[in-house]
Amino acid sequence: MSNALDVDGLEGDGREGKARRLAIESPFLRRMQRRHFFLFNVGPLLGTLAAVGWAFVRPIGALELGLFGVMWLITGLGVSAGYHRFFTHRSFKAPTPVRVALAIMGSMAALGPVISWAAMHRRHHRLADRPGDMHSPNLHGADFGGRVRGLVHAHFTWMLQHEYPNIVHYVPDLLEDRAIVRASRHYQTWVVLGLLVPTAIGALVTRTWEGALAGFLWGGVVRMFVVAQSISALNSILHTLGSRPFQLKDNSRNNPLLGMLIWGEGWHHNHHAFPRSASFALAWYRVDLSYWFIRLLEKLGLATNVIVPTPEQKEARRARAAIKDSNAHLQRNEATHGSQGS
Ligand SMILES: [Zn+2]
Ligand SMILES: [Zn+2]
């Protein structure tokens, strides 16, 4: 992936006269994207409003909270540890049953098939906060209106119409994994399974239609809404607000509160600094649920080669950031003295 990007969005493959298109757009893809948005973003929003309204009539209890919590954990870890850290960034190795399980767990979150998600996310890292980054909040103007438009785009509307990355270019490793190609093709089956399982448990536990509906809403629809909003926060909030200890070229941020709330994903700036690291928190005392899950898999013999940066690598990154910081400080001082002197 060290090829150079040219201005047309075409990339050389190292041979004279050959070029490969990196992303495509078509009316068919736009229709699919809009349909997905209405089914799995607008639909869960309406379902969540209905569930909250119903809770005033029939208060929620242990069943609803339990199903929500368990399905939130399963699908969240599927996206964060599976889709993101394993499939996109290859931060550990796992045998076929674990790979397939992670793909199914992540698919149930309804964020798209694993192969598409990984390709889009690799493109995000390659172009972070530059033209071509399909969900950057930082490309819509620096004034207040531009900032708001950028946040709305990054959190919601980019999904309605966006370029589709060339999967042959971005995820050739995943396309060679037959089990994952099959799991990715059956994406819609897994989404439906993620709705059916809590519905069935709700029905079996209560032996009522109301219980089935409560399971469907809280373990299925509300959970889907919350997980999707959490992952959208990576694109919007975590490229806007928070700390930047490594002073990267992109605008990625760390947000400790989101770090705790969304499976460790809130340490997004750390992640941009060390994309292949299985740990995003980069310290044992910070909450990073997905990393702890990966370490648990490793203890059980279900994950190997877990990648984390060495203390020396972290120190080298910090030192680079400190140099950049002092250079920026010097430039600011020079500009101030220059303007005072003129
Ligand atoms: Zn990433
Ligand atoms: Zn990012």
UniProtKB/TrEMBL annotation:
Signal peptide: none
Keyword Mitochondrion (UniProt): no
Annotated TM spans: 37-57, 64-86, 98-120, 190-209, 215-238
GO molecular function: oxidoreductase activity, acting on paired donors, with oxidation of a pair of donors resulting in the reduction of molecular oxygen to two molecules of water
Membrane topology: Multi-pass membrane protein
Predominant place of localization: membrane
Subcellular location: Membrane
Matching InterPro entries: Acyl-CoA_DS, FA_desaturase_dom
Residue ranges of domain Fatty acid desaturase in the record: 70-288
Domain of life: Bacteria
Keyword Membrane assigned: yes
GO cellular component, one term: membrane
One of the protein's GO biological processes: fatty acid metabolic process
Pfam family, one: FA_desaturase
Family: Belongs to the fatty acid desaturase type 2 family.
Identification of the protein by name: Delta-9 acyl-phospholipid desaturase
Record lineage: Bacteria, Pseudomonadati, Myxococcota, Myxococcia, Myxococcales
